[in-house]
TrEMBL record:
Entry-linked SUPFAM superfamilies: Cytochrome P450
Keywords: Heme, Iron, Metal-binding, Monooxygenase, Oxidoreductase
Listed name of the protein: Cytochrome P450
InterPro entries documented for this protein: Cyt_P450, Cyt_P450_E_grp-I, Cyt_P450_sf, Cytochrome_P450_fung
Cofactors (names): heme
Pfam families: p450 (PF00067)
Single GO MF annotation: oxidoreductase activity, acting on paired donors, with incorporation or reduction of molecular oxygen
């Protein structure tokens, strides 16, 4: 048994991280059920540098390719924005409410 912050976890136990709960932590993600892209920006309009990327895992089991994946995603989105004109149709507004 390995003590972990006062808890004993038997050896060989399979422990699953609960991403749904972690992504709704009100301290890290205020109003998690509200669509608010500005939550990722600081007061100057730059991307916050303390963002939690729990989708890549956490602790010792974090994905070693996390930085490569983030940069590849950034490049792919930049190419999409460069090559397409993305606009909202006036006759069909985008619904930003959560379903």
């Amino acid at each position: 048994m390995v003590p972990e912050q006062g808890h004993c976890i038997p050896e060989g136990t399979i422990d699953y991280g609960r991403h749904w709960i972690l992504s709704r932590d009100p301290m890290a993600f205020p109003d998690p059920e509200v669509f608010n892209p500005q939550r990722w920006l600081d007061s100057e309009g730059c991307l916050k540098d303390n963002i939690k990327f729990i989708v890549y895992g956490f602790g010792r089991r974090v994905c070693p390719g996390m930085h490569l994946a983030n940069q590849s995603l950034y490049i792919a989105i930049a190419f999409l924005l460069w090559s397409f004109r993305i606009a909202q149709r006036p006759d069909s507004p985008i619904d930003t409410r959560l379903q």
